[in-house]
Structures are given as C-alpha cells and as structure tokens.
Amino acid sequence: MDAFTTLIPRFAAAMLVTLEVSLLAAMLGMAGGFVLNLLRLRFPGALAWPYRAYVWIVRGMPYLSQLMIVYFGLAVVGLTMTAVQATIVSLAFYSAAYFAEIFRAGWASIPRGQMEAVRAFGIGRWAAFRTIELPQAVAFALPLLANQVILVIKESAVASIITVPELTMTASDIVASTYTYIVPYAMLIVCYWLLTQSVALLAERAAKLIPFLRTTS
C-alpha cells in the first residue's frame, strides 16, 4: 500500500501530460478532419484525389514512423520542436485522416432525398448545413469520434520513445529504478482506463444533447 501511495503524485503528473497531449492532438486532428471533409464536399472534383491520397498514405503508415519524421526528420531541415510539440503535431496530423473519414461517413449517412427536398424548398446552403446536415452527421459520427479520441489517448503512449514524460514513460522509469512491475503497470492501466472511460461518458452525455440541439437549431 505504501508503494502505491508514493507513486500517486508521479502518475498524477504523468496523467496530466497524457491528457494535455492527447486532447490537443485530438482537437486539432478533429478540426483538421472536419475541414478536410468540408473541402472535399465543396470541391469534389479538384480535391477527390488529394484527399484520398492523404488518407491512404497516413492511415497506411504506423504512427511511430510519423512521429520520428516530425521529431527527427524536420530537425534536419531546421524545423526543431520539443518532444511534446512533435507529439501533438504528429498525432494531430495522423488522427486527422481518421477523423476526416469519420465525418465523410457521417455526411454519407444523410438520406439523399432530404437534401433534394431542401433544394426544392429553396433553403439556403448555410441554413441547410447548420440545421439539417450538421446535426444528423454529428449524431451518426459521435460514437466513432469518441472511439477515435480514445485511440488517440492510447497512441500517445508511443511518445515515451522520445522521452515525453507521459504515463507509459513514467511507468517504465519506475520499473527500471525499482525493479517492481505489478504496481506501476497496474496504476498505468487504471490511469488509461480512467481517461478512456471519461471520454466514453462524455460522448454518451453529448449524444443525449443532440436531439435538443436539433430541435432548437
């Protein structure tokens, strides 16, 4: 019990680092994916192939290789970043491809007849986007978005390789210095469980708000 108590401050600090890196990367990646999907919808001819190429290349590469390119590769050309900055940038770039596909699926779920009816009634593009397309697409995509945020939190563990003091690196450091395995890794599991379950609970609450937002928009 004493070993568990003494490790709480270290894991609490590491949990904050993991939360900061993961949430910033997820928000940037989600915003990037949303913009990519909007550009694809707005310019389907010109951006169809660039969009597919980006998604195909990024999703086909392991995240570790992209982290190494950002952290070590960009430094060769004079663009240096801290380990935390490189993790946020690379993880956002990586997750944006997944978020873009989630938004694409959300828009694809909207029945085509609805948009034809919108045009027939002369509803403006912005009004249709805000009151019809966006609520339905988000309602469909919300579970997938939450799942992707959870995956971003888990992928942030790779940052331990470039010495970001997040949860996985903290557990590894404790194991290396104390030669004890059960308590540090048990605490690591609990911390990740708390983070991922928090995201799942927030997504459930947000899903209950969507009908309200749809009726008041």
Structural notes for this entry:
The protein has 8 helices and no strands. By secondary structure, the protein is mostly helical. It has one domain: MetI-like (MetI-like fold, Orthogonal Bundle). Helix 1 (2-42) packs antiparallel against helix 6 (125-155) and helix 3 packs across helix 4 (83-108). The chain is flat, with a radius of gyration of 21 Å. The model is unreliable at 212-217 (pLDDT under 50).
- Determine and state the CATH class: Mainly Alpha
Q: What is the CATH superfamily label?
A: MetI-like
- Number of structural units classed as domains: 1
State the distance separating the first and last CA atoms: 53 Å
**What fraction, in percent, of the residue positions are helical?**
over 70%
Keywords:
disordered C terminus, mainly alpha, 8 helices, 217 residues, MetI-like fold, flat
Give a nutshell description of this structure.
By secondary structure, the chain is an all-alpha fold.
Which helices and strands occur, and which strands form pairs?
Elements: H1 2-42, H2 44-60, H3 63-76, H4 83-108, H5 112-120, H6 125-155, H7 167-178, H8 182-216
